[in-house]
Amino acid sequence: MSCRIKEIWAWTVRFFLRSLQRHTSTRYGRAYTQMKPRTRLTFFLPTRQGNLLFHVDNSYHPQRVKYSMLRAVDLPPQGMGGNTEFVDVRQAWDDLPEPWKQELQANGYRVRHSMWHSRKLASPDFFARLDATNYPSSLRNLVQEHPDTGRALLYLASHCFEIEGLSAAESKEKLDFLMSHATQEKRILSLPWLNKGDMMVWDNRCVMHRGQPLAGPYKRDLRRATILDEGPEAYSFDAKDYDYMKFWSAAFHVMQQYDTGVQEAAKKQLGLAGKDVAGLEKAIPTV
């Protein structure tokens, strides 16, 4: 079975090469590479806590992700947690009270998605000085139809923070209700990682997912590939105005709290080591 998984993985990378999202490991022109083992600085851990909240991959970028694939290379002993969990946002729509359906359809709400919002939601103390509204976000329909089936769904994620045309308080009230509704315990499918070579593949257009923490200081190596969407809802309504440089300037804004060594390590991980980032730092809003 592990050989078959490797074949599928290799085929996917070749077949979808035009749409393969370029992660850190693909930055230098190769579709998939081995990454050198390293110890992450504690600075980066709070930025990863958002993965423990239900989300869809990269809805905050101008072009969203369609499919995600996660493959286990090295795993801790079984029973140590680390499950990946899913909820079906099509079923969440089906089970939504009728008055809510009528309101959402009548108003055609559009929602802003921000990675920095979900990161702050997961690590509020670490990101206390960060205002997500100062940085680029994407604008997407709240109610969508799956392009392959026509089935209605709630396009939600922990990245959601503002409903266009509503106040911050109104937006929060509605989004909190919808997220609570969609992520009820009865809707959660929790899948353990059992064997090296296991792979999970999911459609970000109809499910949210989250990771669960490990119970102990164990090593785990999961590797991901994602396929960009090219369908009718693929792009943010304001995609042409998206400023990637300003988006990443949020990382430097947070790093101002820390010493130079941590800042330089972060630049290296972002692929900016040795580069002049003076212009980037000037783009950081004053708090």
TrEMBL record:
Q: Domain of life here?
A: Eukaryota
Query: What's in the keyword line of the UniProt record?
Result: Dioxygenase, Iron, Metal-binding, Oxidoreductase
Query: Which Pfam families does the entry link to?
Result: TauD
Using the record's annotation, list all stretches that form the TauD/TfdA-like domain.
Answer: 47-226
One of the record's GO molecular function terms: metal ion binding
SUPFAM superfamilies assigned: Clavaminate synthase-like
Q: What family is it from?
A: Belongs to the TfdA dioxygenase family.
Protein name in UniProt: Taurine catabolism dioxygenase TauD/TfdA
Q: Can you name the source organism?
A: Colletotrichum higginsianum (strain IMI 349063) (Crucifer anthracnose fungus)
